[in-house]
Amino acid sequence: MEVVSYKNVETFVQHLPEVTALGVWIKAIIILAVISAIAGFGTYVERKVLAFMQRRLGPMHVGPYGLLQIIADGIKLFTKEDIVPQNANRFIFMVAPVITAATAFIALAAVPVFPDFTIPEWIPVIGGTFVPSIASDLNVGILFVLGMMAAGLYGPLLAGMAQANKWGIIGAARTAIQFLSYEVVTGLSILAPIMIVGSLSFVDFNAAQAGGIANWLVWKQPVAFILFLIAGFAETNRTPFDLLEHEAEVVSGYATEYSGMRWGMFFIGEYANMITISVIAAIVFLGGYSTEGLGWLWIMLKIAFFFFLMLWVRAAWPHVRPDQLMWLCWKVLMPIAVINVVITGIVMMV
Amino acid sequence: MGLEQFKNRNVGQQEYVLLDLEHTPQSPMGKFKQVVKRTFKPELFVGLGVTMREMINALFRGQMHTIKYPFEKLPISPRYRAIHEMLRLLESGHYRCIGCGLCEKICISNCITMDTRYDENQRKEVSEYTINFGRCIFCGYCAEVCPELAIVHGPRYETASEQRASFSLFEDMLTPIDKLNLQQEYDGFGAVTPNADENIKKTPLAY
Questions:
Q1: Dist. CA B133–CA B201, nearest whole Å
Q2: Where are the beta strands (DSSP E) in A115-235?
Q3: pLDDT (tens digit, 9 = 90+) per residue, B111-157?
Q4: What pLDDT, on a 0 to 100 scale, did the predictor assign at position A1?
Q5: Which long-range contacts does A314-318 make (Cβ < 8 Å, 24+ apart)?
Q6: pTM of the full predicted structure?
Q7: Taking all residues of chain A, what is their mean pLDDT, rounded to a whole number?
Q8: For residues A348 and B17, what is the distance between their CA atoms, to the nearest angstrom?
Q9: B67 in A contact zone (CB under 8 Å)
Q10: In chain B, which among 31-50 make CB contacts under 8 A with chain A?
Q11: What is the rounded distance in angstroms from the CA atom of residue A259 to the CA atom of residue A263?
């Protein structure tokens, strides 16, 4: 296996206009608004897809085909009473959902979410501003995103421990073991592609896979791809691994005592994390985006595919037990990830 | 028809498959082999395929199960006992009730009250007829005892009301004279459901 040459990276970067602070601000607002909306729309899509897979119709009555259901849900969440339980640690209880939502959105700062564009000149004040595709193009983008998602662990953990509820405590304990364990698998599985590309920047990853499906890293690193997907499901708290708030066992886990918009923030954070994992998987393994033509549409389709996969899996597969979860992580996935890294290293050396 | 068919009590499709349940492996090597075997079995993808197939069936092959209830309704059995209706004679349009009073007599919850008198032709006519649907238990005796098939059970089963006593007058239950051609005959108590043949095969009448 030869090391990918990325002499086209410089040309790729150089033709972009200068990124100003105003552009980054606009980008941040776009990310916040659009991802919040998509997270809300994601709940609608999830309910619809799960319904179709069970041969039901799903929400149908609010608006055409139930499209305005998310607005109804939003009104409900915003107007609900904000209850803080009696023995709860008030401050931590109230701040925990903000941690989840904030870390999820901070992680999105280093991810290229939408194509870059320049605001037309005729718009006053902000006209002519270049809005980059990444709010903050770090050269350690992947590390930053994974680190931020790992920091998101504090949201459920603190929420569960602050609410003076036994289900919350169990949920918090499960959060700690699940997120910490699968962080290892995520890091190790994505290490092999990082070794091949030789960079932690998403732009470099994108450039290294330019030029067709044959160049996608998923063909060189199929094992890492599957491991990353499995770990991504665990990190975003999706079914087969949604033990944090598994209703049948722990009522609602860390979110038991939450209601209204605080619970809604956990929800938005979870959906934003799903989008982040989908974006990482699409860029690191499935070739990412291309700047010319309809390249931006392709990455949207890739992201949508991963999002759909999460819903699909939820409709099809049952949960695992917590001990099976740990067994899978430490006895199966982690050894495979290490072996994959070692083999990748040997192949690169030879 | 021979006795063979009746003696076969296995009513299903007779396509049972015996599961090959292996014993739990004891040795480490056996456990490892089991893990590898289970890992590379396509069972999980079979599950994904099933849900995808159902989604395609529901969306594109018209196998959606949902009934949009207030707008769509399932057909009810001809034996169903819902709100009563008073039928008319198809020829003359006159109501069928002859004022015999059997329904009032047989009503076990005493919810039917009727009064009759002789009209100018010395025929009995119904002067007053009410059913208190707050008391009615929809046993169906009135419709069964009626000699003229005058009082029957209609298909209207949404009977929620705002008060406990809910009286229905004779004129309300009577088929409107301009809708006489739409009047449905009540199949009654011996009526069989349209799919009775399929159902009865599961519980044969003779041994």
A1: 37
A2: 117-118, 130-131
A3: 999 999 998 888 888 999 999 988 899 888 998 898 888 998 888 88
A4: 40
A5: A314/A46, A314/A50, A314/A238, A314/A239, A315/A49, A315/A50, A315/A53, A315/A54, A315/B51, A316/A53, A316/B44, A316/B47, A316/B48, A316/B50, A316/B51, A317/A239, A317/A240, A317/B44, A317/B47, A317/B48, A318/A240
A6: 0.77
A7: 83
A8: 50
A9: no
A10: 35, 39, 44, 47-48, 50
A11: 5
CB < 8 Å from B in window 43-82 of A: 49, 52-57, 60
User: CB under 8 Å to A147, separation ≥6 — which residues?
Assistant: none
Q: State residue B131 phi and psi, 5-degree precision.
A: -120, 125
The Cα B54–Cα A13 span in angstroms is 46
Report how far residue A183's alpha carbon sits from residue A146's, in angstroms, rounded to the nearest whole number.
8
What is the predicted ipTM?
0.74
Provide the token pair at B15. 């396509």
A3-47, pLDDT tens digit by residue? 444 444 444 445 556 777 777 788 888 888 888 888 888 888 999
Residues of chain A scoring pLDDT < 50: 1-13
**What pLDDT does residue A3 have?**
46
- For residue B29 the two structure tokens come to 């090597």
**Cα dihedral A120, A125, A130, A134 sign:** negative
- Domain locations along chain A: 83-128+136-349
Query: Which tens digit of pLDDT belongs to each residue from B164-205?
Result: 878 888 888 888 888 888 888 887 777 777 777 776 666 666
Return the structure tokens found at A123: 């718009």
**What is the rounded average pLDDT of the residues B40-53?**
87
Please give the order of strands across the beta sheet that includes B124-132. B112-118, B124-132, B167-169
Q: Which of residues 288-347 of A touch B (CB under 8 A)?
A: 312-313, 315-317, 332
* A70, two tokens: 């998310």
Asked if B47 lies within 8 A of A316 by C-beta distance, the reply is yes
Chain B, nearest residue to A314 by Cα: B48
